[in-house]
Design goal:
The chain has 685 residues and is of the alpha/beta class. 52% of the residues lie in helices and 11% in strands. It has 26 helices and 13 strands. The strands form three sheets. It has a six-stranded mixed sheet, sandwiched between helices. The chain has a four-stranded antiparallel sheet with strand order 5-4-7-8, sandwiched between helices. A three-stranded antiparallel sheet has the order 1-2-3, with no helix packed on it. The chain binds adenosine-5'-triphosphate.
Length: 685
């Protein structure tokens, strides 16, 4: 971003009425009532009783509290041997969070700071109920006094540290996609589009609204700050009253960081509750936070108004030097320095114990008890959502059909925006087709021709398989993180993603086999009949799509492209071997028969051979002095006495194929196509 852009952004953030007046903010341009909270000596922002969004939804502001959060992690990695090992030596548990309490009122922007390894991300994960699969958590998280579990996802947004987008989409397209899938089902399409425009304005994204998001180093797109604001925009489309941000300013320069926090400040003014982990905030950014939560060694070192943090540290003998950034001071005071570990740990103990005993901590706990007492009978479940009067009843914001339509739209346009890949693959198919056509140019129906044609048909299968499989093998490791995040956020179902991918792949994997067959079929001089040509093209389409399915399955099983590549040869080789070309079907050992059934090579080879030879009435026997391929089972040619294929049926029989199997073969290839796709979908579930 240029300096002028930065300046204009800053000035827009101060001159834009959105930034200045919460009432005029587009997200909540209805009404809200404000009353001063009372009954507690905790310094609190104005408590907002009720918010009405422009879409007419009533949203109750959120007070988030958590009590006695303890988190443990196994220090031993779990492996195959862990069961045996654990009998001798029970797995040790490392305590990551120790009795952490907290309470955040609506309309508060709170920064979570601390040295590296202090437990900030772990606390965030516990509060958001995300990524907690491998840790043991005890304690309760409450929303407006009600114990909540995974339901917190339905009422909160989570802006994660690393932004993940489809880089070819524009800012507006990305937001439209999210609006169509995430917003409440009862909101009309017009309402959703209106909300998109509101959010664009609210987050100052007007300037880049039609710019592709891009990917650093590959495709130039919007700036880092704009990307971060786009992440916020994606999350606030649904007007969540609670927003979590992990490392909101990481990777941004101080100007951009300030601009992003200013944006958060605006959102808070609208009554939201925002928790934000932050690394090394500048003094200006630090001062913008209403409250501060300082973590140290998994404990709470301070939680309260930002401006009272320094006096608290001062009162316990920790004086921040003049002109020192307070955040830097807190972090360095609470950091564990190698070589002075015990001394640092003792200091952390002193500060954390002092805060635990402080009036502020006691009042916070009392406030939390008061809130919890009012809802003592409520536990986690849909009730939480009902009580909060937040209208998200469904696991997914959109119906199955809307999910399919929207994901299909995005998959299609992202594919179309990358025409280079399609172009290269088409040119590659034409070149290989012409090369094969020239190598096998105009084969005659002779004994040599039989061998050449059968070889060419098997090469067709190989080319279709390799071309399709390697084109898809890298797709999933690349898309997996975005898919997991979007699916995890309840944007769309797993099957929707795969159906969309399958449907969008169809044109490519129909067109390429048809182009390939159109070139090679006539150049080689295969059985000269339009119907047989179309059958060959159809078989290759089936093979290409089955290989794509296997490619997707392998790419799902592998976590990296390299691993996927390494898995392909051992999977493909047996399938190829039992295809009936390298090894006669009658020679397959009994213990490998099952592999033969998994080989689309076998079915497709049988189909291609039968299609090619079944109507060939005579093959010239021109091999002097012996049987072609040395096979004594072939009939003898009357005139020369040599053993030859007299007609196409002899070729079919010689290869142990059967023309009665064609429907079974087609059915089995289709079954493999569906089977691989299903396994692929299940492995992602
Ligand atoms: N699943 C886990 N298994 C073992 N240890 C873990 C696990 N998760 C976190 N930890 C440990 O807990 C401590 C706190 O980790 P956490 O990621 O919460 O720190 P953080 O404050 O976010 O650090 P940073 O600022 O560097 O991201 C670290 O020592 C980390 O190694």
């Amino acid at each position: 971003m240029s300096n002028e852009e930065k300046v204009s952004l800053l000035s827009s953030s101060s001159s834009n009425p959105t930034y200045m007046n919460a009432r005029s903010s587009t997200g909540f341009n209805g009404t809200y009532d404000v009353e001063k909270s009372g009954g507690s000596s905790q310094e609190m922002p104005p408590r907002i009783r009720r918010l009405t969004s422009s879409t007419g939804e009533t949203i109750e502001p959120i007070t988030l509290s958590w009590r006695d959060i303890n988190v443990y992690a196994d220090t031993q990695s779990k492996g195959i041997c862990s069961k045996f090992r654990s009998k001798e030596k029970p797995s040790e548990k490392k305590q990551i969070l120790k009795n952490v309490n907290g309470l955040v009122r609506p309309g508060t922007l709170i920064a979570i700071i601390g040295a590296s390894g202090a437990g900030k991300s772990t606390l965030m994960n516990v509060l958001t109920s995300r990524n907690i699969g491998k840790i043991h958590v005890s304690g309760v998280v409450r929303v407006n006094g009600i114990v909540t579990g995974r339901n917190i996802k339905n009422i909160s947004g989570y802006v994660q540290q690393d932004d993940m987008f489809y880089e070819t989409l524009t800012v507006r397209e990305h937001l439209v996609f999210r609006a169509l899938l995430r917003m409440d089902r009862r909101i009309s399409k017009t309402g959703r589009m209106q909300r998109v425009e509101e959010v664009i304005e609210e987050l100052g994204l007007e300037k880049c609204v039609n710019t592709a998001i891009g990917y650093p180093g590959f495709k130039k797109g919007i700036s880092g700050g704009e990307k971060k604001r786009l992440s916020f925009a994606s999350e606030i489309l649904t007007n969540p009253p609670l927003l979590f941000c992990d490392e909101a300013t990481s990777g941004l320069d101080s100007f951009m960081a300030q601009s992003v926090v200013q944006t958060l400040k605006t959102l808070v003014m609208n009554g939201r509750t925002i928790l934000c982990t932050i690394h090394q905030p500048s003094s200006e950014v630090y001062a913008m936070f209403d409250q501060l939560l300082i973590m140290a060694e998994g404990r709470l070192a301070y939680m309260g108004p930002t401006k009272e943090a320094l006096p608290f540290f001062n009162s316990h003998g920790f004086l921040c030097p003049m002109n020192f950034n307070p955040a830097d001071y807190f972090i360095s005071t609470l950091a564990i320095v190698p070589g002075r570990i015990q001394e640092c740990k003792d200091r952390v103990e002193v500060i954390c114990d002092a805060f635990n005993k402080s009036d502020r901590s006691q009042i916070m706990k009392a406030d939390e008890d008061k809130l919890a007492f009012g809802h003592a009978n409520y536990t986690t479940g849909p009730l939480v959502i009902l009580t909060l009067n937040i209208v998200q009843w469904y696991r997914y914001g959109a119906s199955w059909c809307r999910q399919l339509g929207t994901v299909l739209w995005r998959t299609w346009i992202t594919g179309m925006r990358d025409p280079m890949v399609v172009r290269i693959r088409t040119i590659q198919t034409i070149i290989i087709g012409v090369m094969l056509g020239l190598v096998y140019l105009q084969q005659d129906y002779t004994q040599e021709g039989v061998m050449n044609i059968n070889g060419a048909l098997f090469l067709f299968l190989n080319f279709m398989t390799f071309n399709s499989l390697f084109a898809t093998i890298n797709v999933f490791p690349q898309e997996l993180p975005v898919f997991l995040r979007e699916h995890g956020s309840g944007i769309y179902r797993t099957d929707i993603y795969f159906i969309s991918k399958t449907l969008c792949d169809i044109p490519t994997y129909v067109l390429l086999p048809v182009i390939f067959t159109s070139i090679t079929y006539w150049m080689i001089g295969l059985y000269s009949n339009g119907v047989n040509f179309m059958i060959t093209a159809g078989i290759l389409v089936l093979v290409a799509n089955t290989a794509v399915s296997l490619g997707y399955m392998v790419s799902t099983l592998a976590s990296t492209v390299g691993m996927a590549m390494a898995l392909v040869p051992p999977i493909l080789l047996p399938l190829m071997l039992f295809g009936g070309f390298f090894l006669n079907n009658a020679s397959v050992p009994d213990y490998f028969i099952w592999l033969e059934y998994l080989s689309w090579y076998k079915y497709a080879n049988e189909l291609l051979i039968v299609n090619q030879w079944k109507d060939v009435d005579s093959i010239v026997c021109d091999t002097p002095g012996g049987a072609p391929m040395g096979n004594a089972s072939l009939p003898t040619n009357g005139t020369s006495g040599t053993r030859c294929f007299p007609n196409g049926n002899a070729v079919i029989q010689y290869m142990n194929f059967d023309s009665d199997n064609i429907y079974t073969d087609i059915g089995l290839i289709c079954a493999l196509f569906v089977g691989f796709r299903s396994l692929h979908s299940f492995s992602c579930w």
